[in-house]
Write a structure and sequence with these properties.
Elements (H helix, E strand, L loop, with lengths): L12 E12 L11 E16 L11 E4 L7 E9 L4 E7 L9 H17 L11 E7 L4 E2 L4 H6 L21 E2 L4 H17 L10 H19 L6 H8 L2 E4 L16 H9 L11 E4 L6 E7 L6 H14 L1 H23 L6 H19 L6 H10 L5 E5 L8 E7 L2 H18 L4 E8 L4 E3 L10
Parallel strand pairs: 3-6
Antiparallel strand pairs: 1-2, 1-15, 2-6, 2-9, 2-14, 3-4, 4-5, 7-8, 9-10, 11-13, 11-14, 12-13
Bound molecules: adenosine-5'-triphosphate and (3R)-3-hydroxy-3-methyl-5-(phosphonooxy)pentanoic acid (PMV).
């Protein structure tokens, strides 16, 4: 096995992308006239790429993606070059017991292999050496149904540290915590494919041009896999880290599917090369946390239907344009104020900047009929805000029942008080709310040292 060197083709590489928490700007960020304040998270999805060695004379053309933290999570793909500029299309190979399709992985392979086949000039189109991609998600993306002892017997902690927990379930049965796993995996897998297959002189993940290509391509793949065009704040955060984010124009996303005539040229042209001016009009204004301040997440363990909520809010906005414009405008002012408070390190103003976000989101929820800050969350967050060291709270993103974000003093004492509060609240209310280990962080996509993942190279 070879280590990564700069000029080598098909090197062993590891990359990681963070999850996200949208502190302010849910719903309004879908409209390009507004923005959202989003933080990256310490929970990252790592992808390790390496060539599958073949014996001399043996020809296999297989790309394998596996998520060893889940049962039945090895996806094998064959691929072919489709006529009429249809690009590269992968097909899942079923070689043993049936494995559920993974739409996000399959779609990412279709988009990224097509891009590489057409953008990498030295490559014989349609020719990719067999490779394996191992996906390792930091623990907080899913609630664990297992005790640590069960986890050990399910095979976790290969590296001796339980760093990547085994969930003992299939992905379908895992309980997501809403940290943006699909955007992180699409972005991380896109970066790993580009870094593994592209000429290193043409693609460098650490350069501004490399990030632009990664961003554009991952947004297209993510929109296609989701079957809708969201604001893209989650993919943008996976690439660039924390920011005040203004979305791209939805009209940029081509309406042609993998394999259809013209798909390859459209994708390659739309993504661009990151150097020449492209049409992507998103904007990223970085933000960071003041020293001594942490963003932490509370797992509320329920689950929300974001699609239904967005429809309700949009129906209300269309029926009451005047009221909606007022609420949208006030929320936009909150995004800007909170960003300014954090950038300026004005810790004592965080609470005052966050409170109106909750009030306005509640109002939007009441007026539209979407449970953005349900009453059960209101009661818990009102009480949590009284805990010493807590600056402010919010139901992040689209809102709902599945998570809460807490901006608080970054010290052991505050953490202990918040944990005790949540334990007490769980007992009193017969629900399960807990403080996750994950915290807000600023960094986006990152190249990782392959050596930390050696034990996952089979
Ligand atoms: N560890 C993983 N390995 C492989 N695929 C994964 C993994 N985690 C997530 N996925 C893919 O992402 C999909 C989940 O995407 P979905 O958009 O429902 O969740 P999410 O992005 O975590 O949600 P949210 O936007 O609420 O945070 C899974 O069905 C699977 O296709
Ligand atoms: C409602 C929306 O603005 C935010 C959804 O955020 P989340 O997936 O709940 O973190 C949708 C979007 O921005 O794509």
């Amino acid at each position: 096995m070879s280590d990564t060197t700069i000029a080598e083709r098909n090197p062993t590489v590891a990359v990681s992308a963070p999850g996200k928490v949208l502190l302010a700007g849910g719903y309004i960020v879908l409209d390009r006239r507004y923005t959202g304040l989003v933080f990256g998270l310490s929970a990252r999805i790592h992808v390790l790429a390496h060539e599958i060695p073949t014996s001399e004379g043996v020809h296999i053309s297989e790309i394998v993606v596996q998520s060893p933290q889940f049962l039945n999570a090895t996806w094998r793909y064959g691929y072919r070059l489709v006529d009429n500029d249809g690009g590269i299309k992968v097909t899942q190979l079923q070689t043993g017991p049936p494995v559920d399709a993974n739409h996000f992985i399959e779609t990412t392979l279709n988009y990224v292999l097509t891009y590489i086949a057409y953008a990498d000039k030295d490559r014989t189109k349609g020719s990719f050496k067999p490779a394996s991609f191992v996906v390792l998600a930091d623990n907080d993306y899913y609630s664990s149904p297992l005790s640590p002892a069960d986890e050990a017997s399910a095979g976790a902690g290969k590296d001796g540290q339980h760093r990547f927990r085994h969930y003992g379930t299939t992905l379908r049965d895992a309980h997501k915590t809403g940290l943006g796993s699909s955007a992180a995996i699409v972005t991380s897998l896109t970066a790993a494919l580009l870094a593994h297959y592209m000429d290193p002189r043409a693609f460098d993940i650490t350069s501004p041009a490399g990030r632009r290509v990664l961003h554009n391509l991952a947004q297209l793949a993510h929109c296609a896999a989701q079957g809708k065009i969201g604001s893209g704040f989650d993919v943008a955060t996976a690439v660039y880290g924390s920011s005040v984010y203004q979305r791209f124009s939805p009209s940029l996303v081509p309406g042609v599917a993998p394999g259809e005539a013209g798909f390859a040229s459209l994708v390659t042209k739309t993504v661009g090369d990151g150097v020449e001016k492209d049409n992507w009009d998103y904007n990223i204004h970085p933000v960071a946390l003041p020293p001594g301040v942490a963003i932490r997440m509370v797992d509320v363990d329920c689950g929300t239907q974001t699609v239904g909520m967005v429809k309700k809010v949009h129906d209300w906005r269309d029926a009451h344009p005047h009221d909606a414009a007022g609420v949208y405008g006030s929320l936009q002012a909150c995004v800007e104020r909170l960003a300014e408070v954090l950038r300026g390190g004005k810790t004592d103003e965080i609470g005052g900047a966050m409170r109106p976000v909750r009030e306005l989101m509640r109002r939007m929820g009441q007026d539209s009929g979407a449970p953005i800050e349900p009453e059960s969350q209101t009661a818990m967050l009102d009480a949590l805000e009284k805990v010493a060291g807590v600056y402010g709270t919010v139901v992040p993103g689209a809102g709902g029942y599945d998570a809460a974000a807490v901006v608080m003093r970054d010290d052991k004492e505050t953490e202990q008080k918040v944990k005790e509060f949540l334990e007490g609240w769980s007992k009193e209310h017969g629900i399960r709310v807990s403080l996750m280990a994950v915290r807000g962080e600023t960094e986006g996509i990152r190249k990782e040292d392959v050596n930390q993942f050696r034990s996952w190279l089979h």
